[in-house]
Write a structure and sequence with these properties.
Low-confidence stretches: none
Largest sheet: 8 strands, mixed
Shape: globular
Helix content: 25-40%
Number of helices: 6
Mean pLDDT: 91
Structural class: alpha+beta
Order of helices and strands: EEHHHEEEHEHEEH
Number of strands: 8
Strand order of the largest sheet: 1-2-3-4-5-6-8-7
Amino acid sequence: MRKYPKKIIGKKAVIRKLEPKDLAQSLAWLKDHQVNKFLSQDFSGFDLKQENQWYQFIQSSHNDMAFAIDTQTGKYIGNCALHKINWIKKIAEFGIVIGDKQYWNQGYGTDAVKLVLQYATHDLGLRKIELNVYNYNGRAIKTYLKCGFKHKEVLKKDHYYNGRYWDTYVMEYVKHKKEEKDV
């Protein structure tokens, strides 16, 4: 079952359990148009009450885990999560947002993805992680490929944004045989 680590420390990022103190900042990021356009839905209309309800849901769920992403100096810069964890099939969905735009294009997202994949496969025993990404999010696609995700499927004209329809790429990370032996 799910168990949160105290902290997972990487080369740049630190992953920890998302806490109530993070919610106001997280909500501000969700309302930022430049951040929001990359997310799975439009959260710009959310308020703190809805953010707290989501947080309570995540805390009570046995199939979802939400993490904060900090810098090595402790600055909170984003979130990532494992959703819809199927403990029998050992699969989950992944999502990430570096909300603090000062930290875009500096490797924090890549490091955070690698840390969560390591945790998911080694500590939680998951074998496959999936995600959706829009084809206009080249930075994220490059990161996911660098972290070992592969293209699984293209959902043609699946996402409406900024007056037009965009493709959604379904990507997956499958635990390597070597990793399975290490566990």
